[in-house]
Amino acid sequence: MKGQLGFLVDIDKCIGCHSCEMACKNQNQLDPEIRWRIVYPMKGNSSVPTERCFLSLACNHCEKPECMRVCPVRAYTKLENGIVFHDKNRCIGCRMCIMACPYQVPQFNSNTKKVEKCNLCAERIEQGLNPFCVDGCITDAITLINFNEFNEIKAEREIEGFPNPNITNPSVRFIPYKPGVQIRRDV
Amino acid sequence: MGEWPLILFTVLSQLVVGAVGTLWLLETLGKPLKGQAVKPLVGSLVIILGGGLLISLFHLGHPLLAFRAITNLGSSWLSREVLLFSITLVLLVLYYMKISDAEPNGRKAMGGLASLVALLALIASALVYTLPARSAWGNLYPTFFFIMTAAILGPLYVGLFLSRQEELPFNTAPLAGTAALISGIGFILYLSLLLKGTPESYQTALNLMGSASFWARAVLNWLLPAGILLAASLKKTKVNQSTLAALFLMVLIGEVLGRELFYSATVALKVAGL
Lengths: 187, 274
Fold this sequence. Notes:
The complex is a heterodimer of chains A (187) and B (274).
Chain A: E1 5-10, H1 19-27, E2 38-41, E3 54-57, H2 66-70, E4 76-78, E5 84-86, H3 96-100, E6 107-109, E7 114-116, H4 122-126, H5 132-136, E8 142-146, E9 172-175
Parallel strand pairs in A: 1-9
Antiparallel strand pairs in A: 1-8, 2-3, 4-5, 6-7
Chain B: H1 4-29, H2 35-56, H3 77-98, H4 104-128, H5 141-162, H6 173-196, H7 199-209, H8 212-235, H9 241-264
């Protein structure tokens, strides 16, 4: 598959259950302290209620990945399908990518002394399957998208709490929270 | 406090860059220095830089695979930094071997080449940290501060090393005093830039100013050296060796404290806000 794969995250559908996080963690057999996908509670404001909104993020497989630029050992490769692939065998654990990623995606594994991150389940994608997090989401809040074919007009590139996308042009889009209509009934 | 290998490597390597540059200036602007005085100085720089490079390996998860770190010269400043400092080390060894009173011109050229590559290595080192994800670093200030560290430590080290043995063409200590003054003023401007910047920059400025290390550094690294050295320079009195040694030690401690804060106080961009 060619193009630029990424995620569409529907914040309106996400209920913060962490199923995506756990599906990724279990199926990829990650060490206890490592999470390739993280569900962040969003900071509240007048339009985002804190108890309701979550931001589920993994690697954003950026168009201009900072991790790949700064890595001194070429452990990162941009695949034909846009996946930013991290090769653990090349990594020497310098943690430069951790410093450079605006989204705190790469994580240092203190057991292997190497960095690791989401590879967008590259092997599953080769087989025509979805990433584990997409299949694990019980509300269909995460969708795998190909940016070459993607034209959802409700999707937004920037959302409150997400670092400036102009730095790396991340391959993720968001459907924002839609405030419900509250009806006040006089008793 | 988890970045000690990087703190020590950056400060020591910058000391070497400043020292080799100062030595080259001394040899270029005045008559050639005595080989027996210069040789131990250059030898000590080889040991300091070699030691610094060795210490930096302990930052890696896999130090034995460090040789791979020069495989992304096309885009990684870390690769370039490692390569340039390794070349500097080789040039310093050649410089050391070339030092004899018989042929001062050849060694002057070697000193010039070593100074140039060392300066490029220092700039590469600063650009490693010039990252958009860290708004406190994503500007020219890492380069400015790294150069200032070299400009304060280098002349003091050379002055201390040669003060007993040589009649120098110029006194190196006021150079360090001027650099300390410029560095201090630069830091005030830097803080004002951080306070006016992004929430992460603002938080970094608060972290810096709220730390006792910062104020200790301000005294040890800027106020005392600039005051003592510039006062001596105005009075046209020469700073004696024990004062120079005390100043060098103070500045070294100040630089180490400052570098520790450089790593620990900086706030990265955060998902879901600060």
